[in-house]
What does this fold into?
Amino acid sequence: MPVLPALGGLLALYLAAPFVAGLAHIGLADWRGADWPGLGQATLVSVLSATAATLLIALGGIPLGYLLARRPARAMRLLGFMVQLPLALPPLSSGILLLFLLGYASPIGILTHGALTDSFAGIVLAETFVAAPFLIIAARSAFAEVDPVLEDVARTLGHAPGSVFMRVSLPLAARGIAAGLLLAWLRAFGEFGATVMVAYHPYSLPVYTYVAFGGEGLPAMVPVLLPTLGAALLIMFFATRLTTPRRSRLRPAEAASGMLPPVPSPAGDQPPKAFAFTLTRKLDGFSLDVSYQTTARRIAILGPSGSGKSLTLRALAGLDAQAGDRLTIGDQDWAKAPAEARRVAYVPQSYGLFPHLTAEKQLAFARDADMAVARQWFEKLGLCELEQRYPAALSLGQQQRVALARALGRPADLLLLDEPFSALDTPRRAELRAALRALQAQITATSILVTHDPADAFALADDIIIVDQGQVLQAGPVNDVFLRPRSALVAHLLGAEATAKGIVAAPNAIDIGNDVTLPISGPALRPGDRIGWTIAAERIRIVPSGELPAEIIAIEPAQAGRRRVIIRVGHAELPVVQAPDEGLCPGPIRVTLPPGAIQVWNEDETMALR
Ligand SMILES: Nc1ncnc2c1ncn2[C@@H]1O[C@H](COP(=O)(O)OP(=O)(O)OP(=O)(O)O)[C@@H](O)[C@H]1O
It folds into this structure.
């Protein structure tokens, strides 16, 4: 569309035109008659006062920007609004307000004998007032860009909040803050309105310019403009460099396998530690109330999206410890310990690698990192070649390994893994699952894995906690929960596609209708009870020698060239995944349903639970 470039071009032309017009006056200027000492003095005053004001602004503005970015409370929003007000005020009005505060007749003016007006200090204070919002806004945006997960991870690596700020938040926000500081300096250097009201003397450069213009008119202005233009060009050059995205000097991420090499040696022979927790949280629109106790060393927390899994993990890590928490591991009570004091190895969903540190430096980041142990993990996880890479140059699998090595490189009693495979494709997922299983066998820490995939839980946990809407639906050893889910919902969360109903015919057999009785494994059931049941599609075998009569009622194409066959057995309609077989067609067949694969729950008890 030609209108857009035309409109943009016109404005750009207008912005450039005064500079061009100024060029024409260079030859006409009275260079000899210029008041160079006066101009030099005013320039010095402006450079020094702008620098002092910028230092003051940095001292308060950086922490303020951080608070505004991290604390969403209403009081903070009000504070944010207030500190930006000077931007909206005409500078002369700002000057008048400052005179109310600092002028001769004000309490502060009386106390300081007027030292804060018509003085260098007055210039600094006026400049600070009008220029501070530039830094505060830049710092707030820069800190808001820093992923809070990185700060969480740093705390679980033993760093107290002050150290997290200095080592993670500040370095990551540094470019934005530096740009804000340059702009604040420039604004302070060019400040006129508030300054002329608060401190007419000593002359700052803008006040000097105004006075010179009043006395000698436009022809004398070209030499006066020189320092201003020079400072503006210099600062804008640096500010532009800071705000231009840096081109990565890193090597691109290789598509190399993210596989953890299997690690052979078994975990120590130490008995697993007793582990118990009760955690409650009341959030806007969501309540969490979970508790469990076990002596198992590998636990999975399984639930659908938004069920409270990550909140539980964060609470275990101590990232938002609250008064009512209960958390013991072995003989230690961690409930009141802050995150940095807990012995946890926490790997969040996004892995939480610090973008400004190489893989090697991530490893050394933990406050109490045992570098010998960390290096061992580095080697075991096949990371030696990647030591000098930044996270941006690592594949997802490699990032996961670095995050694991970093977490394991310090003493930990709990390994907390939040959806460790969620970013990976299916084959990589299976590889890493196997490798993580090997890793679990090597560590003595209790591992807690958050997942929404039952396959992860079966592979990597002895106990499972099933959560939904912030509540524990069922918890216990994986096999027990699998064979006796408490409800159809639990069975679905464990992967059941279709469920059916029946009646308990004998302690280990169920009547599923049409005179079909199904033998089952697991704890005895009470004859006569109404039950729900299911079986995973891949566990059903269609074979001529099958024990049960069934009927094929539909055949549908499925992924990878396979077929999904819907069978009726008893009153149940169940899917079966089959390799292509020309012989199969709708009609009677025989099937085998292994008793150990059948999940059963008591419908009457499920109703009572509701
Ligand atoms: N700081 C917060 N304030 C208010 N609600 C929150 C906060 N953090 C999380 N929630 C809410 O708590 C609920 C549980 O969140 P959580 O991150 O624990 O879910 P999840 O089970 O881990 O989900 P997913 O599998 O999608 O990661 C969600 O509804 C979420 O919106």
Observations:
- The chain has three domains: 15-243, 275-483, 501-609.
- Residues 15-243 form a domain with the MetI-like fold fold (CATH 1.10.3720.10).
- The first strand starts at residue 275 and ends at 283.
